[in-house]
Amino acid sequence: MASPPEHVDVNRALWTESNAKFTDADAEVQWAREEIVWGAFEWPESELRILGDVSGLDVVELGCGTAYFSAWLARRGARPVGVDVTPAQLETARRLQERHELQFPLIEASAEDVPLPDASFDLALSEFGAVLWCEPDLWIGEATRLLRPGGRLVFMRGSTIMNLCGDEEHANDRLTRDWSFLLDRMDFRDEGGGIEFHPPTGVMLGVLRRAGFELLELHELLAPADAETHPHYDFVTADWGRRWPSVEIWVARKQP
Amino acid sequence: MTHPNIESWTRANAEHTDARAEEAWAREEPDWGVWRVPESELHALPDVTGKDVVELGCGTAYFGAWLKKLGAARVVGVDPTPAQLATARRCNEKFGLGLEFVEAFGEDVPLPDASFDLVFSEYGASIWADPYKWIPEAARLLRPGGELVFLRNSTLVILCSPDDENAAASETLERPQFGMHEFQWPNSGIEYHLGHGDWIRLLRANGFEILDLIEIQAPADTATHEYYGYVTADWGRKWPAEEIWRARLST
Lengths: 256, 251
Description:
The complex is a heterodimer. Chain A is of the alpha/beta class.
């Protein structure tokens, strides 16, 4: 069998470290939340209305991390399966499953190669998970394979403009990176990061279309008036996020 | 009072587009935008053979002429500026391509429902008409399954454009994206620019399936356009200043 691509190992190492520094402790807060919120500025699902009624849906979360989002969906009657490539994060997720008495399957795998059967889910979800850390054609190809016809793919990622304006500290109002930087994998190892993927809007639309998805929605999110800069995910300030979209949510449907 | 866009395009026609129209009509292969990227590289057009086409904001109608040469059955050019249509009619006689012309804004087109297979706009209604009005018009004019193809400025280049419209786009975000819609540049007409999320919402709300979005980078050997100086070739090589959308009306 071929060994996994370099970015898988690099990103697993990054998230093992990030889990020790931040996400393990943060998972306690996230799992205890009643409300579904999206992203670093905590947009409430009750306002965005992206997901609708998830009760009875089979959901696969690709790049689930500590699986708090799957936990929120499970409480609303969904049947989630969390997939992540980092054992440390899944260990945190299992601890919280026991604490909250909320069991659902957690599978250690890259979202580029998921050991689950074809056409077995109604919703594939990635909140800053596979969408950021996996090769776009590969993980979206897996998403379409895993979904039933008519099933939805929902993912949240940083915006293209935020990536173009990104800097070592946080995004500013200068175009610090050329377009070509986004067309290949983005290697942030020199800055203590991992290997990320951010195809711009047109390219991502092409990936979705080739995989058999119809694009339904693209939400470019305005940071709430009372949002504050996130202490850990500080790639963008709240003030920047009130002028330009820092994150976006895509909704697509697998052709029926 | 003359509409500022008619005033602006009457002036532009006298300064530039009238003199360039014949050369453009004479070209065989379509090319796109200020960098003139050939269609053979972008593949942005559907097969137009035998199709009925309406071009919204046709100007001197050189693109309509190219579509006719590619085999379109009927091409109707719609534009609100009489001076541009006069140039278009002169070229149409000279080249004998049999285009039809209608003097109207893209927001309110006096043509019947469901009478076209392709609605097209290259720097026409796509930036000079209010999308919340011209996209519903496009949907009304199309037959079920018909396509909409338009070229506009990228949202990014508009965000980077200084208020002085004679200055080229900078490498700084000059204005917020949230709230962008109508732009009145000093000494110019009224333009309309939306972000990608708003475009997708608007197209979907009018029954379109989004087929393609081509974000165009300027080719390596391109020079800054001698008349449309809003962006330098150097900027356009680093970031897309233009983009083409392709959408299909649901059947």
